[in-house]
């Protein structure tokens, strides 16, 4: 799960696949062999999908499909349109609800349900199944996992994989997706993970909040009330403070991008003029951002925006406003 700037992390097991051989490209014997393998791969995928509906075979099918989902073409439509398959995956999810509180989830149970979640991420990522996936309200089944507090590995893995499904939805800019998520509790749930999750979970959760803010309706939603702005701003501020002791360039990048987007709202920009963490202004992270020119530019633009916005200068095109200062205690 390497770089979140333009996408949600993908499993590393397929990231380093070697390029095809010249024979497979040129249509020689290797190409013919590869073409002959495709029907066998699809037949294998179809059989594994059928196995999901058999309780005795489901665990192995979950494991094999989650490991090989990148090499099975059109696996998402196959999963979505096969009779009983999504119901079987949801059955895997709800079966561990009793283990969430009190937190008694075992590593084996966590791995199994995370394999099911990996297949749902596949469905959430595919352009033909993303919107039907939303309309069926499947993401809501994942929210109990994001509402957990245990920091043990099984729960952390469960939260991270659940965030991966939501991240797959927001990765492609789609106002319908953002509109759906804003009708749910996704922002408070992401903020909770940003406060108490692992560095990787915090990064994915912040990426989701960033993508919501980058959509106009998401920015309007967060800045519509002082309470919403304060909830997001206070969590971002606490994360900046914690990064001074435990630096993470990739997490800092998404925090800065969230702040920059908030500064596009005039009222929020006035509030940020007074409440933006000093560590973003005094060069604390200069070394961390030394090799990341894009994030340095974002930070420079953020500081410019809040300076001009706080003075009500022409850069913002608005006069000074009370903004959201009152709820920041300013």
Structural features, described:
The chain has 330 residues and is mostly helical. It has a domain at 44-139. Helix content is 64%, strand content 0%. The protein has 17 helices and no strands. The chain has helices at residues 22-26, 29-51, 58-68, 75-81, 85-94, 107-125, 130-135, 143-146, 153-171, 175-182, 186-196, 199-214, 216-223, 226-245, 249-262, 266-275, 293-311. The longest helix is centred in the first third of the chain and has 23 residues, at 29-51. The chain starts with 21 loop residues before the first helix and ends in a 19-residue tail after the last helix. The model is unreliable at 1-33 and 313-330 (pLDDT under 50). This is Cell differentiation protein rcd1. It comes from Triticum aestivum (Wheat). Residues 1-37 are annotated as: Disordered.
